Amino acid sequence: SSHEYKLNFKKSKEACLIYIQDALLQKQWKRAAEFLTCYVESLEKDYSREHIGPSEMIWRIGTEILWHHSQSNMKEFNCFMEQMKTLGVKRYLKVCLEHVFHLLCNGQIDEAYQNLSLAESWRFGEQTAIQDKEMKLIQAYRGLLDYYSWSKQKNILLEHGEDGFSDLAVEQEMHSYFRKAAVNLKEIIKIPGVWDIFVKCYVDLLEFYGDHNEARQVLNEYAYNSKFPANPNAHVYLYQFLKRQGESKKSLISALKILHDIVPSHELMIDFNTMLQKSKKRKKRRLGLEVIFAALDYAGWKENAKAWSCLARQVKQIVISEKHLDWIKQEWNSRKDWWPAFHFSRYLAKRNWQENKNLSYEKALVAGILLGKDCKYFKYVSHQGCKAQLKRFRMLKKFVNRHNPVYLRISG
Amino acid sequence: RDFNERCAQCSEVNWGLTDGGRFYCRSCHNVTERTREVVNTDFITNSRVQTISKGLRKQEKNDGGCEWYICEGFQLVLKKQAEALEALGVCPQMKDEILCNFWRCYLQKSKQAYCKRPAGETVKTLSACESSTDVDSDPERPSLLHLLSLSESDGDLQTDCSFASSVSKVSESTSVYSGSVDGSLYLMKNQKEKLRMTMPMTLSFCYMALLWLREPITLSELLRFVVEGHIPYLNVFQHFPEKMKLCGLDLKIFCVESWPVYEEVFNKMHELAAFLDLPRFPDITDSCFLHPDMLCMKYLMEANLPDELHNWTCRVVKKIGIGEVDFLTLMPGNKSTRKVKYDVLAAAVIVVVLKLLFLLDDHYEWLLSEFAEERNKNNTEGVPYFELKKWYEVVKHSLDVEQKKLDEERAKYLWRCEKPLFYSVKNKSKVLKRRQMVVNLQNQFGKLSGSVQRAEKPNPSSFQLSWSEENTDGSCFHGHSLKGVLQEKCGLLRAMNPDYWLCTVKLCNEKLCGHLAHYREVEFPQSYHFVLGLFSFLLRIQPSYIHDEVCMIEHKLFGKKLCKKLKYNTVLRK
C-alpha cells in the first residue's frame, strides 16, 4: 500500500493474499471469502515457478473458510473438496486425507470410510509411486476405522456373552475387521514415525487375540528403535503393557528409566519412585530419590500431595536410618538456592494449609528436614497444625525437632 | 492528403468533409479543393482497404474464423476506446476524424497498410521445431522462444516454454502460433525502426487525439478512467468479432496484465507524434483546460485549499513563463524543449506556492497555523483565516480513507474475463475447464461474502475528493482567507514567510538518468512529503515525478538568484 501506482497481476494477487491472511487471523470469514473470490482467477495463470501455487493456496484457504463460516455446511464443504481433488493431481491423496479428517471431526465415520476406500483404489501412473507415503497413511487410517468397527463388534459380543448368547455373525464380522485392521496397522508402524494411536490399537488387537509376543515386539521396536523419533508415549505404552503382563519389577523399572530421562516431569514418575524406593538395590533407591526430586522441580507438581508424600517418605526413611544423608545433600545442593522460594515461602505455607492439609503436612516434613525447624514453612504449618490439635502435626513437630542436627549437616 | 494544414482564412486546423468529399474548415466554413482519396470513410474493420493493398485472401477457415491482421485488432481497440470517450463527453470529432486519421497515418508510415506491400512482406510460414539448441536450424528463422522473449508484456516464461514445447511438434502454417495472420511476424519486427504498436500505445493515440482537440481530460485522468474500467483496455479483445480468433502469440500482444504507466504512455505519445510527422498541435491558450491556471484551480479545489491561492499560482505561472502558448503547445520532433506534463506541472505549481507561503519545513507552517488560530478567535470578518493544521487533519483523514479503499481495490482487481484465452488449440480444453472451475469457486465464495457484493463500477467523475461549502463542520476550506499568512507592504500582499528552501541545488541531466532530481522521503520534511503524497494520489503517479517538476519550477523561479549568488561567491573568494 502507499504510493505505488503501478500494478500488475502478480502484485495484485500478492496483495490479495495479504488481505485474506489478515481476515483469517481475525476470524473474519466473510471478508476472507470476499477476497478469496477475487483471488481464484489466479488458477488461470501459470505459477509453476512458485513454491506454493494458487491451487494449493485456494485449497487451504477455502477449507478454513468453509469449515468456520456460519453459512457454510457439510454439503458445500464436500463439494469444494471434490473440486480441489481434481485441481492438483500431485496433491490428490493429501487432499483426500484432509477431507477424511474433516469428516471424522464432523462425526461422519461412514463417509470418511468411503472416501478412504476410494482413495485407496486411486491409480495415476507414476504419481501413485510418488505419493506412496500418503497412500500408506490412507491405508493406516482405514485400518484405524476397521479397528473402531472391530471394537464395536467386540462390545456387542461381550454384552451378549453376559447374557449367555453367542452371535456367530457378529463374531465373524469382528474377526474380519480384525484382519483388515491388523494388516494396515502393521504396515504403517514399520515406517519410522510417531504412530501412537496406530500402535495402541494394534497392540489392543494383538492382546485380545493372545499374541503377546508380537505385541511385546511391536512395543519394543516402537520404544527402542533409534530410527524412530524419541517419543515418551512409546515408553509409557511399553510400561503399561508390561504391567498388564505382570512382568517383574526389574523390567518395569527399565522401561521407565528412559521415560525419566526424556520427561522427568511425567506423571508416571510417582509409580517409578514408589518402585525404586522399595528396591533392595542401593542404586535403585538412589535413583528413586533423584527421580522424585526431579519431578518436583516442575511447577505442575507443586501441589501434588502424592508426589510430596513420596519424597517425604523417602527423606524420612533416610533420616531415621541415618544412612545415605549424603544423597539428600547431593540432591539439595543444586536446589537450595531456589526451592525455598519456589516451594516453601510463607505465602505458600498459608495457602497450602488452607487448601490441602495433607499437602502441607508432607511439605512441612520435607521443609523441616531440608531447611530446619526454624524455616518459615515448617514453623507456620506446624504451629497451625498444633493449634488445630491435629495429632500428626504434633508428631511431625517432635520428629523434626529431634532430627534438627540433620539439617545442619545437610546445609553445611 | 495534408489535412493538417491551417485554414487559409482563419488559420484553424479544424477540418470536416462535405458531401462531395471535399475538406472544409469548420471554423469559417471555407471549402477547399482538397478531396479525400481514401475509398472508405467509415471507421470499421477496413477489410476492403486491406484487401486492396494485400490482395485477396480467404475469408473463412475451418473453425469459423477468418484471417485477420494485428493492426485490424488494434483498430478495433481504438474504435472501442474512442466510443467510450465519446460516452464520457468527448466530442464525436475525436473518433470520426482525429483519431481515425492519426491511425491511418500511422499505418501508412509503418507500412502496414495504405501502401504498396513492401518487398518480402509475405508472411513467412514458420515451420515447427525451432528450438534454440537445434544446430541445423536456419539461422534466419527465429525460434519461437526468441519471439516470445521479444514481447514486452510480462507473461511468465514458464507458460511460454510449455506452450513452445507443446507446439513444436506441429508443422502447419502460421495460424498455429497465432490466430492472426501476422502475429509472429509482428513480434519479430525491429521495433526501433517502425514503432511497433502495443496496447499502452493505444492510450497514447487516444491522448494524442485528446490533446489535439484540447479536450478537458488530462493524461492522469485518462489513465484513471482506464483503471476504473470506463475505457476499454484490459480484456478489450473480448469485443473482437467471433470470427477473429485469438490465440497463441496474439495473446502476448493484446492481453494486458498491468495498469498502464503514465511515463510510458506519455513518452510513446511524443515518439508517435514525431513519427507521424505531425505539425505543431493546436495552441494551448489560457482559456484551455490544460493551461496551468485552469488546472491549478481544479486541483486547488480538489485539495480543499483556499481559492485565494489561485492568485499565487497564476503569479508563479506568469513569472516563470510556463503559461506561454509556445511553452505549452506541443511541437512534435522538437527535442530541445522539455515535454509538458500538464497535470503534473499544475500540481507542482501548487506545491511551490505552498512552500512559498508556508515554507513547509515541519516547523514554520505550524507556527503560522497557530498564529492564524489565535487570530481566528477574535475574527469578526465572517471569513475564517486558513489554518494549515485544521486543513491537514481534514485532508489527511479523507486521504487515508480513500487510500485504504484504493489499496483494497488493487487487491480485489479482477484481471480475467469470460472470453477464454489459449495459446494453442491443444490446451483449449484445459483452459476451458479451468475457467469453469474459477467461475464455480467465485460463485461459491461470492455467496459467502455476505452482503458485500462487488459494487457496480462507480460513475466516472473528474473529482476524486470533493468538499462542500454547505457542510457546517468547517471541513471545506475553499472560502478561507489567507490573511493569516500574508502581510501588506506598499499596497501589495506579500508572504510573511521570508525564506524558501530549494528541493535541489543542481538539476540532474534528465537525458542521462531519466530524472531531474532524486526524491527520497527521508531527506525532506514530512509536510512536503504529505503534500506530494496528496497530489500523487490524485494523479496516481509516483511522488518523485511531481518532485521533478517542483525542482524544475524552482530553478526557473530562482535560477537567476542562484547564479548570481554563485558568481558573487567566486568573486569574494578571489
UniProtKB/TrEMBL annotation, chain A:
> Out of the domains of life, which is the source?
Eukaryota
Pfam family for this entry, one: TAF1_subA
Q: Which BP terms in the Gene Ontology apply to this protein? A: transcription by RNA polymerase I
Q: Name one GO cellular component term.
A: RNA polymerase I transcription regulator complex
InterPro entries membership: SL1/TIF-IB_Component (IPR052669), TAF1A (IPR039495)
| Protein name, per record | TAF1A polymerase
Organism of origin is: Pomatostomus ruficeps (Chestnut-crowned babbler)
Q: What is the gene called?
A: Taf1a
TrEMBL record, chain B:
The entry's keywords? DNA-binding, Metal-binding, Nucleus, Transcription, Transcription regulation, Zinc, Zinc-finger
Q: One GO CC annotation, please?
A: RNA polymerase transcription factor SL1 complex
One GO biological-process annotation of the entry reads:
nucleolar large rRNA transcription by RNA polymerase I
Q: Which residues form the RRN7-type domain?
A: 2-33
Residues in Rrn7/TAF1B C-terminal cyclin domain copies:
258-448
State a single Pfam family of this protein. Zn_ribbon_RRN7
A GO molecular-function term, please?
RNA polymerase I core promoter sequence-specific DNA binding
Domain of life of the organism in this record?
Eukaryota
**Family label:** Belongs to the RRN7/TAF1B family.
PANTHER family xref list? TATA BOX-BINDING PROTEIN-ASSOCIATED FACTOR RNA POLYMERASE I SUBUNIT B (PTHR31576:SF2)
Q: What is the name of this protein? A: TATA box-binding protein-associated factor RNA polymerase I subunit B
Species assigned in the record: Pomatostomus ruficeps
Organism phylogeny: Eukaryota, Metazoa, Chordata, Craniata, Vertebrata
